[in-house]
Amino acid sequence: MTLFYPNGQPYRDTGIRKESMLQSAVDYGHRGMTLEEDLNVTNSYYIQTDQAVIYKKPTPVQIVHVDYPKRSAAKITEAYFRKASTTDYNGVYRGKYIDFEAKETTHENYIPLKNFHRHQVEHMDRIRRHGGIGFIIVKFTKSDEVFLLDAVYLSECWSRSLESGGRKSIPKQLFQDKGHLIPQKYLPRIDYLCVVNDVYF
Amino acid sequence: MTLFYPNGQPYRDTGIRKESMLQSAVDYGHRGMTLEEDLNVTNSYYIQTDQAVIYKKPTPVQIVHVDYPKRSAAKITEAYFRKASTTDYNGVYRGKYIDFEAKETTHENYIPLKNFHRHQVEHMDRIRRHGGIGFIIVKFTKSDEVFLLDAVYLSECWSRSLESGGRKSIPKQLFQDKGHLIPQKYLPRIDYLCVVNDVYF
């Protein structure tokens, strides 16, 4: 359905509305914000307040064709999404290497392991071997709870899932027993470093 | 031009062809290999031999339009290259966070500072403040010499370049005086960790 302004002009989404929605979403406890958006805001806050230097890596893209028009920027006209061989987030905090993957689940009591890839599990095993801190951050959207769970548990669940009849998901109970609930605040939104402080230092 | 397999599926670069190209390049003493290619091979070697976990980050791309054709992969049809706000390489080595940028210069005695961006210099300043190891790797292609230089010197040159009449490049002499020549070998090609061992541990 096309909507029209009183002046007869068709309504078009300019993105401005979206930002004001985000703003109002914040006021109402940021309903509708994705975990990724919340973590990006959180990481920016950590950088601005000089607490840590942690970034989300760019989305890996296989570039097939690029146009180089005269007098304007190179334009990628054919590209495909690639599967990440590492995790999405990494950086440095209090001299330590930090590495994590973040996922949401709509399931009430578990997150399917298909949210992660073998390469990512292997990557996090390596990180631990080399003295880095590796974990996953999982948001259970139904209850609006966000947990931090050390990568060793992901690795264990992954190994068990490969056995015949092995469970193909991580139960919420494991997050409650071995993980840590991350406080959600106005700023920083998902204060995972406060958990990292308690768990790893 | 899109190529098709006999089954009608479009051909996509899987990287296999590229690797075999790299392989043959190796056989000829890696003539024409860029610093980036050499570092990718080096980092793969470090991972395979379980010495370090260091990756090049994906190229940052601003995705504008994606097609979702039925029964095949999502295709990005409009995207643009973005300027990186961080450095290209990071990871963990012997429990330490490692972060660096790599550049080539065809100039015999200097590398212009315009090869780096303000955001990158600020990023490396932050890395040092938080206890990470930050440096640049620069290849002087004329002499085929590759140097490692701590990020503090990049930062100093950058600050001086902003003064009126300040030099807009880093002289090779600074690499020779304060930096470290990286041994080039068959494998690993650019053995920068052997320098990191000496300088930072």
Residue stretches of chain A low in confidence (pLDDT < 50, at least 5 long) are 14-29
Instruction: Tally the structural domains of chain A.
Output: 1
Total of helices of chain A: 6
Assembly state: homodimer
What does the overall shape of chain A look like?
globular
Largest sheet of chain A: 6 strands, mixed
Distance between the termini of chain A: 55 Å
Question: Could you give the order of strands across the largest sheet of chain A?
Answer: 1-4-5-7-8-10
Largest interface: A-B, 41 and 43 residues
Enter the CATH topology name of chain A: Trna Endonuclease, Chain: A, domain 1
User: Which structural class best describes the helix and strand composition of chain A?
Assistant: alpha+beta
Structure explained in plain terms:
The first copy, chain A, has 201 residues and is α+β, with helices and mostly antiparallel strands. Chain A has a single domain (33-58, 84-200), classed as Trna Endonuclease, Chain: A, domain 1 (3-Layer(aba) Sandwich). The first copy, chain A, has helices at 16-27, 35-48, 118-129, 151-162, 172-178, 192-200; strands spanning 53-56, 61-67, 75-81, 89-93, 96-105, 110-112, 133-140, 145-150, 169-171, 180-181. In chain A, the strands form three sheets. A six-stranded mixed sheet of chain A has the order 1-4-5-7-8-10, with helices on both faces. In chain A, strands 2-3 form a two-stranded antiparallel ribbon. In chain A, β2 (61-67) and β3 form a beta hairpin. The longest helix of chain A has 14 residues, at 35-48. Residues 14-29 of chain A have low confidence and may be disordered. Chain A binds chain B through residues 47, 50, 52-53, 55, 57-64, 73-82, 85-86, 90-97, 99, 123, 126-127, 129-132, and chain B through 2, 12-13, 47, 50, 52-53, 55, 57-61, 63, 73-82, 85-86, 90-99, 123, 126-127, 129-132. β3 of chain A pairs antiparallel with β3 of chain B.
